[in-house]
Amino acid sequence: MAAAVAVYAATALLTHRYRIQDYYSSLESRLGYSLFLGNTRHCGFYWGRQAWPLKINQALRAIEEKLYDRLVLPPGSTVLDARAGSGHVAIHIARKELFVNAIDITPHYLKDAKKNVRANQLESRIKVEYGDYHNLEHKFPENHFDGIYTMKTFVHANDPATVLRNFFQLLKPGGTLVLHEAEFRRNSPRLQEVLRLSHCQNTLEEGNYKRLIEEAGFTDFSLKDLSDNVLKIVGQQQRFPNIMAGVEAWLHWEDGRYISVRAIKPLPTL
């Protein structure tokens, strides 16, 4: 890990101008995510002693299915994929007969997502467009979506509380929020360096998801710990510091965990 930090710290991207677009647009990140995570930006769900790289596509689809199961929405519902990446999660969700607005801020991911949607003939169910989940008040009307979800992208939020308030405004009363994300239970300089390198420096500490989500107005909060079944990658840190900074956190479960958070926008009181 120290070598990876040294390599990455030498680059100009570690200035105050470093953006999430820079992180994901770098050639090294693009190659790393393609090689290790099937060109997605999320980890897989593995059973028992099943290990990467065996059955990686099945594992990726399995974690997407876990997210869909948490939405609990009927066919025909409209959902927001907040930072959709290459569109793989949106494609999985759309195949469940849901309609998806897929937004992202990284140009090459928007291009990839549109290509993948066309290749799967899902243009009628998925709309891919530029959108930043920090600034959605003029992009979609209030009370518009039946569900909103993120898959390992909320950790990149510069202002998590603002993002949650935006989600609350955009959801219909009774709508569902599902976040498949990371949190940490014990802080350390090493962990903060990992989070900084992967542009996840605002990753929440254990207990803060519930607090912030309820402060935004949501109710019926529930959390599932998926850590034991989430992909772990070892041995490639020095070759791919960008992508490995993102997965390095999974190698130290005493510091953090992978969770599925669900909450509801309450119905108005009479």
TrEMBL record:
Name used for this protein in its record: S-adenosyl-L-methionine-dependent methyltransferase
Occurrences of domain Methyltransferase (ranges): 76-217
Sorted UniProt keywords: Methyltransferase, Transferase
Organism: Massariosphaeria phaeospora
Gene Ontology terms describing biological process: ergosterol biosynthetic process; methylation
Record-level Gene Ontology MF annotations: sterol 24-C-methyltransferase activity
Homology family: Belongs to the class I-like SAM-binding methyltransferase superfamily. Erg6/SMT family.
Coiled-coil zones: none
